[in-house]
Design brief:
The chain is an all-alpha fold and about 270 residues long. The protein has helices at about 5-15, 30-50, 60-65, 75-90, 90-100, 110-115, 125-145, 150-155, 175-190, 195-210, 215-235, 235-265, and strands at about 20, 25. It is globular, with a radius of gyration of 22 Å.
Length: about 270
């Protein structure tokens, strides 16, 4: 997670020099490996806690995005009518998907990338994605709190599906995150890029399906999500950690393939 010569290198040397004893005798090799793994996870978390990928105030959602449609304007009425039409035409399957995608769990992308996305076995990838999630919140909240746009169901209570949201409507946080998360996932899983990006787009659209957002909220979220992604990609630390996550995923795939071969051989 840290370039050679930095604190990560020193920590690595320290970890290699640690001898684990119990009752004056070295622990068994497997236990020692487990202890080293715990130390590595703790170290990765500490490193990410002390560094950020995004520069202060970047991207600036207020400067980047146009204002939402003015209250009472013809544009707002058209926006609201679209929500009514989409909500009225929704199917039970679409509504069920919308509530599932609202969780914004990274595991939601498993449908596109496969079972290799087991974050409990991918500590570097998990740390990277958690950092992306953590740093994105303020970038979304600043324009939301600036424009203070009401949700569609505030204008038309018949559009309320599920629990009301606690934040303002513009831009859509789910659309922003769905776009951002899918772009990061596409970097980690380039072979499944199109399927991953489709999931990201659907996360935003699903918010219209259950009356949580206007279409303009969703489109603005896509613009903001792409801007955040560009900021991440311009950061050398992010590029380094992204590379390490890719290598970790590749190693997990090799292990899974080797295990599959072993299991098939055992059945012959």
């Amino acid at each position: 997670m840290v370039a050679p010569g930095g604190s990560g290198y020193a920590a690595g040397r320290t970890m290699r020099s640690i001898h684990v004893f119990q009752s004056g005798r070295p622990l068994r090799r497997a236990t020692a490996r487990a202890a080293a793994g715990i130390l590595l996870l703790a170290f990765c978390g500490a490193v990410l806690a002390g560094e950020t990928y995004l520069r202060p105030g970047r991207p600036d959602g207020i400067a980047l995005l146009p204002p939402p449609p003015a209250a009472g304007s013809a544009w707002e009425k058209a926006d609201l009518n679209t929500v009514r039409e989409v909500l009225k035409a929704r199917t039970p399957a679409q509504e069920e998907r919308a509530f599932r995608s609202a969780s914004l769990r990274f595991e939601y992308f498993t449908n596109a990338v496969g079972p290799v996305l087991d974050l409990s076995r991918l500590p570097r990838t998990d740390a990277l994605l958690k950092a992306v999630k953590k740093e994105t919140g303020e970038v979304i909240n600043i324009p939301k709190d600036h424009w203070e746009r009401n949700r569609p169901y505030v204008l038309d209570p018949e559009l309320n599906v599920g629990r009301p949201e606690r934040s303002f409507s513009y831009p859509s946080g789910h659309s922003t995150r769905g776009t951002l998360y899918s772009l990061v996932m596409a970097e980690l899983f380039p072979e499944q890029r199109e399927a991953v990006l489709e999931i990201g787009r659907n996360i935003g659209w699903d918010r219209i399906v259950i009356g949580k957002h206007f279409p303009t909220d969703v489109f603005a979220g896509r613009v903001l999500g792409k801007a955040i992604f560009r900021e991440f990609m311009a950061n050398p630390d992010f590029q380094r950690d992204l590379k390490e996550a890719r290598e970790e995923i590749a190693a997990a795939r090799r292990r899974a393939a080797a295990q599959s071969v072993t299991e098939e051989a055992a059945l012959r």
